């Protein structure tokens, strides 16, 4: 038994968790000080995301730009591993929450992390500019450092399916418009376009910015830290994951793997052989 004063124990318990996100008491729910009943019907879901992770209320224009980025990345078809996993999970008997959790768990460095990595590249280039380097020099040095640390694939540029990712130009156009309106300063749009131009010079061919590079521009312009870039992508892609899991629920199907069973996989092991001391078709004693 503890010999501490009960009041001290209670104070210690209250201090166990500390949060500036929500103040919830009987009959009262406040987010960063705002009563929830005043937010309902007054702010958009992207604005609410901003408030929850940043503690401040964005302007409607900032919320609209964040919303555009979130809308752009909701889905990329059932060939995307996270989407395929959500559908396969449903056919294995998982409910929607299990299917969504299984799919979200693969959104890591390779599939899902490119936006965060691209934001880190942009931030490094911006830091070099703050140290007095010109934009072009900062881009070249930033790219060299990124390649030395991560390899030749530059996150946020190039695409396996699209010669030009149709989402990226639209997002950059929205950034340009927001820049004219004074919503963002356009610094990271300049950095992103500069990286794209540098890669074209280095490779001798165009390697256009993709969805990850374009949303990285928006998230960086809006002041989000790079790790939040991945979190925001996961929020966005969760919409597609949910939609596909629900559609598969309606379609039915049982234990569907990644490809139809009449399409064989490739076996690369040893040729058929017998275990020593036995003959094919005979039982082992």
Spell out the blueprint of helices and strands.
Blueprint: H1 6-14, E1 22-25, E2 28-31, E3 34-35, H2 36-39, H3 45-54, H4 60-72, H5 81-91, H6 96-104, H7 114-130, H8 135-150, H9 167-180, H10 187-203, H11 211-221, H12 226-251
Antiparallel strand pairs: 1-2, 2-3
Helix pairs in contact: 3-4, 4-9, 4-11, 4-12, 5-6, 5-12, 6-12, 7-8, 7-10, 7-11, 7-12, 8-10, 9-11, 10-11
Provide keyphrases for this structure.
285 residues; mainly alpha; 3-stranded antiparallel beta sheet; citrate synthase (unknown stereospecificity); Citrate_synthase_sf; transferase; Citrate_synthase
The termini sit apart by: 63 Å
Number of beta strands: 3
What number is the mean pLDDT?
94
Give the low-confidence spans. none
Number of domains: 2
Radius of gyration: 25 Å
How would you characterize the largest beta sheet? Answer: 3 strands, antiparallel
Principal-axis shape equals globular
* Helix percent band: 55-70%
Known CATH architecture of the largest domain:
Orthogonal Bundle
The CATH superfamily of the largest domain appears as Cytochrome P450-Terp, domain 2
Strand order of the largest sheet: 1-2-3
How is the CATH topology of the largest domain named?
Cytochrome p450-Terp, domain 2
Structural class: mainly alpha
Give a description of the structure.
Strands 1-2-3 form a 3-stranded antiparallel sheet. 55% of the residues lie in helices and 4% in strands. It has 12 helices and 3 strands. It is globular, with a radius of gyration of 25 Å. Helix 7 crosses helix 10 (187-203), helix 7 (114-130) runs antiparallel to helix 12 and helix 10 (187-203) runs antiparallel to helix 11. A hairpin with a 2-residue loop joins strand 2 (28-31) and strand 3. The longest helix has 26 residues, at 226-251. It is mostly helical and 285 residues long. The protein has 2 domains: 1-42, no CATH class; 58-256, Cytochrome p450-Terp, domain 2, CATH 1.10.230. The protein has helices spanning 6-14, 36-39, 45-54, 60-72, 81-91, 96-104, 114-130, 135-150, 167-180, 187-203, 211-221, 226-251, and strands at residues 22-25, 28-31, 34-35.
């Amino acid at each position: 038994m503890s010999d501490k004063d009960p009041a001290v124990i209670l104070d210690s318990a209250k201090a166990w968790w500390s949060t500036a996100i929500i103040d919830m008491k009987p009959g009262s729910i406040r987010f960063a000080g705002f009563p929830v009943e005043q937010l309902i019907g007054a702010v958009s879901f992207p604005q609410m995301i901003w408030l929850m992770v940043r503690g401040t209320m964005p302007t409607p224009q900032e919320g609209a730009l964040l919303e555009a980025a979130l809308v752009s990345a909701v889905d990329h078809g059932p060939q995307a591993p996270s989407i395929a996993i959500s559908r396969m999970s449903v056919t294995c008997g998982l409910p929607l929450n299990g299917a969504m959790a299984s799919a979200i768990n693969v959104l890591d460095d390779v599939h899902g992390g490119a936006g965060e990595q691209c934001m880190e590249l942009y931030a490094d280039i911006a830091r070099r500019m703050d140290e007095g380097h010109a934009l072009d020099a900062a881009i070249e040095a930033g790219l060299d450092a990124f390649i030395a640390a991560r390899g030749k694939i530059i996150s946020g540029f190039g695409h396996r399916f699209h010669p030009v990712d149709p989402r990226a130009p639209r997002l950059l156009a929205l950034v340009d418009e927001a820049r004219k309106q004074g919503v963002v300063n356009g610094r990271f749009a300049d950095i992103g376009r500069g990286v794209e131009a540098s890669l074209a010079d280095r490779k001798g061919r165009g390697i256009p910015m993709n969805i990850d590079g374009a949303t990285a521009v928006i998230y960086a312009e809006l002041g989000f830290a790079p790790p939040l870039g991945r979190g925001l992508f996961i929020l966005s892609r969760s919409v597609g994951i949910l939609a596909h899991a629900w559609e598969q629920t309606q379609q039915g199907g049982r234990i569907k793997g990644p490809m139809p069973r009449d399409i064989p996989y490739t076996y690369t092991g040893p040729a058929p052989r017998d275990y020593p001391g036995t003959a094919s078709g005979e039982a082992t004693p």
